[in-house]
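Lab intake sheet, docking and co-folding queue.

SAMPLE TYPE: protein with bound small molecule
LIGAND NAME: flavin mononucleotide
LIGAND FORMAT: SMILES
REQUESTED OUTPUT: full 3D complex as structure tokens
PRIORITY: normal
SUBMITTED BY: R.K., bench team

The fields below were copied directly from the construct record.
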Amino acid sequence: MNALVLYDSLGGNTEKVARRIHDTLTAGGVASELIKVAEDTELDMYAYDILCLGSPVIAWGPTNNMRDFVMKKLRAYHKDHIKPSAPLRPGKFAISFCTYSGTHIGEMEATPLTKWFSAFTAHLGCQILGEWNVVGEFHNMEDVNVNGRLGDIRGRPNDADLLEIENRVKGLLAGIAAWKG
Ligand SMILES: Cc1cc2nc3c(=O)[nH]c(=O)nc-3n(C[C@H](O)[C@H](O)[C@H](O)COP(=O)(O)O)c2cc1C
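RESULT FIELD (auto-filled):
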């Protein structure tokens, strides 16, 4: 089984989460690739069994590089891969993740982004296994990090946040192994 952990990160928070997902997949025997999206990123999304896509929340959406990549792939696959009703491809799974600060309206700032990722991977026929909204401090914004809707988020994602991600990945791998029998 193989996996792609494709992410963007402007200040390092989302990279920490992406790396923990990748490391846990690797430790679990999955051939995982960890790639930071760039303007010239070119990948075959159908070449992987598990797609993990993540970005920091930027105004309730992805980064520009991630948006451009996803829209480019969507246009390309619409030609002859994406069918009406988007039939499930058995054995193809996806995880959507983001980091966010939730300063004004809490987790509602993050859910549009992970839903957006899931809409993309569901178009490809993946079964969505998780939508993980991970709290991340707002870089260089001390006031915001203490007085936002989520309270004191300094230092997030912290060790506990990353351990939770690790455990979630382990749980999903156990579920896939049980499904495979
Ligand atoms: C330009 C900019 C816009 C942001 N917009 C939002 C937002 O709308 N909602 C939110 O919850 N967090 C927002 N954030 C906070 C980031 O999502 C958060 O700090 C994230 O963990 C950063 O991840 P990174 O270090 O991987 O870039 C914004 C950050 C920046 C720099």
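REVIEWER NOTE: Residues 9-15, 56-60, 99-103, 109, 136-139 surround flavin mononucleotide (CB under 6 Å).
SIGN-OFF: pending second check by T.M.
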